[in-house]
Design goal:
Largest interface: A-B, 39 and 41 residues
CATH topology of the largest domain in chain A: Butyryl-CoA Dehydrogenase, subunit A, domain 3
Number of helices of chain A: 11
Number of strands of chain B: 8
Radius of gyration of chain A: 20 Å
Radius of gyration of chain B: 22 Å
Number of helices of chain B: 12
Largest sheet of chain A: 4 strands, mixed
CATH class of the largest domain in chain B: Mainly Alpha
Helix content of chain B: 40-55%
Oligomer: heterodimer
Number of strands of chain A: 10
Distance between the termini of chain B: 31 Å
CATH class of the largest domain in chain A: Mainly Alpha
Number of domains of chain A: 3
Order of helices and strands of chain A: HHHHHHEEEEEEEEHEEHHHH
Shape of chain A: globular
Strand order of the largest sheet of chain A: 1-4-5-8
Chain lengths: 342, 393
Amino acid sequence: MDFNPTDDRRMLGDTLDRFLTGRYDHTTRMKIAGSDAGWSREMWAEMAELGLIGALFTQDQGGFGGEGADIALIFERLGRALVVEPFHGALAAAALTQDQRDEVIAGSLIPIFAHSEAGTAFDPDRLSAKVENGVLTGSKVAVANAEAADIFVVSAMEGDTPALFAVQATDAHLTPYPLMDGGRGADVRFDGASATRLDMAPADLLDTTLLALSAEALGLMERCKDTTVEYLKTRKQFGVPLSKFQALQHRAVDMVTEIEQTRSAVINVGHHLGTDKAAKYAAAAKYTAATTGRLVAEETIQLHGGIAMTWEYDVAHAAKRLVMTAPIMGDEDVHLMRFAAL
Amino acid sequence: MNLDFTPEQDAFRAEVRAWLDENLSSRLADKVRTSKHLSKQDMEDWHAKLHARGWLANHWPEEYGGPGWGPVEKFIFEDECAMANAPRIVPFGVSMLGPVLLKYGSDAQKAHYLPRILDGTDWWCQGYSEPGAGSDLASLKTTAIKEGDHYIVNGQKTWTTLGQHADWIFCLVRTSKEGKPQEGISFLLIDMKTPGIEVRPIHLLDGDHEVNEVWFSDVKVPVENLVGPENQGWTLAKYLLTYERTGIAGVGFSTSALAELKAVIGKTEKATDPLFAARVARVEIALENMKTTNMRVLASAAGGAAPGAESSLLKIKGTEIRQEINALFMRAMGPQAQPFISEALEEGYNGPEIGPEGAAWAAKDYFNNRKLSIFGGSNEIQKNIVSKAMLGF
């Protein structure tokens, strides 16, 4: 039992921290997130150059990380900095060919995972998208960074079995829009698109995606909590800092307690990724992250008071993003019932 | 990052399990599983078996009879004991007074009292709380006034768990009214047979006699029974409380209680209730997270860092989880949680069994374990501690 990061991961974390602090400050992020594209190709190239995409994959996959703990570490930090570049999409490269994955790692090919439908946010057995004779028909909703895609990795039924398919982005019909928490997404319709079946089972990519989402939420929670704790120490009312009021102290402690539980949930799924326990721990992590995420976001806004209601205040955007990550790939109810059934 | 136990730790777990299999009678395990009242003899017998194996005072240094375990071994041991439904080790001598004597006791005190804790000669109880001093422990009023080579003790202690069995009580007493309340407290060992001591039972809302009031009127205590310097008892008191909180997450207890809950659901109308299934899933997820949170705190302790305020987080969340499992267990019984046949909680009961197994103790356990968020420093006090120590408020 050892909870200390390896030297490699410590270095990766330091690299990420330096880059995000130096190159991805709040002003830059807001500019990128509000831009026409909703992400930055230049930033993506820098991130690829730093090896941040390669760190999502194992050596066998052409990368130099790729374990649950690597993915958790990266997404936690990306979450903390509210990064909008298509990292979740990059994870889907695990399902592509080695040549394609090499391009993804180099930053020159962008895959996007299109999964949720109007009728099912998560459950791959209830998909209505289907592939017959290599042709895909169906609609996906709220696909983040869809406009950035060069290639879509799409979940769809083939016969009675959910499977993953690769589809060229040029074969998709997009209805794009800005997202509540910055960046852009789209509804994506496939109307007889040519689809190549991939070997990876949807469940495996979904487990990894749930880990990434939960870790991202954890990073956002830490950002929210740290800022709130500092604010409580500095903001004075009735002649004393807010941190002297016991009602507020206890609410801050409740946040800390639940955030530590979320950290444990992320560690659990990271540790069990690729085993037969992954699905259960992934459901537990997503449930925990979504539940705690809303608690922390709402408390962050409430404990700050009016200032956190303003567009100008940076942590308000973190709280907003934290709330908006919850419904992606199934909210707490979906994953609670899934956990109960697994 | 690695969540796995080492091969040595796995082997240790197997060793503990095999020992429990050999030494924990099914009679005793069944009493614990079905929440029957344990007799003093039950507890003493269990202590004796553990002592014979060298596992009773499992956090003491080896030179005083401890097995030399680290926190992970201690956790594994407690986990296995809980899963096997072993009686819990009565903590007052072994886990509370023991560490205080080891750190602050004189050589003579160590030589005299420690072996008697181990071999069961002395049953200890705790004299901390008073009617006017609960969370605000430092406001305690029981006085000890020095007269020659004795202290004369007057006052009242309360919530004295299993004091009805005790030979000795360790007490926080006021030896000075000067300065801050914390500055006039001393830590005193008192023989329960001394004239002037009266133990009065307190019956709890589940009908149990588990705790007591202990009254002192002009009780003569030899000065050599003082532990540590006079008026420095608060330091010892706090040290004991920090110790009390290690292992307080009760992960093993919750794990075995959750297994019991799942086993019983199938026999009730909750078997097909998706809302109830969600409630169970929710607490199971919290427990799975808690196991790892607990491990993280243990690992940092094993690595040399002292668990401080983190143990308060464990106490808060761990007790919430245990209480929720108790509540769900009672709810699973539906209206059959209502019958309360106290004889059914005694060994050898052979009257009618009312309701599914568990109905006899579901409500009693629920009410009894409301104490979890109150004792060892209430959960609100824990939040004060975290707020100060971790958040710097």
